[in-house]
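Design a sequence for this backbone.
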């Protein structure tokens, strides 16, 4: 399954971004439910927030699995480190 996701173009960074987004969406779902359904109480808002919040560990797990696959496959992008290394000022001898 991880190879199929990788072949589809999904990278570990995408899964990590989805995990972080689901954490934010969890807060938004909680606040939105609390405001949209004031008669339903905090319990329903909590359930919406928890429901969406449960997505984050799944996305983090997929990110870790994809990262491991990318390391084994040799396609792991170290763009930040590579950029710093490539733009470093050469040392004078």
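Sequence:
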């Amino acid at each position: 399954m991880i190879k199929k996701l990788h072949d589809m173009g999904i990278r570990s960074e995408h899964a990590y971004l989805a995990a972080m987004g689901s954490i934010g969406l969890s807060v938004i779902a909680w606040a939105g439910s609390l405001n949209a359904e004031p008669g339903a109480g905090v319990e329903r808002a909590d359930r919406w927030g928890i429901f969406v919040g449960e997505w984050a560990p799944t996305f983090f797990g997929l990110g870790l699995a994809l990262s491991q696959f990318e390391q084994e496959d040799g396609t792991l992008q170290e763009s930040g480190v590579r950029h710093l290394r490539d733009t470093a000022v050469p040392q004078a001898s």
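The CA atoms of residues 25 and 52 lie 7 Å apart.
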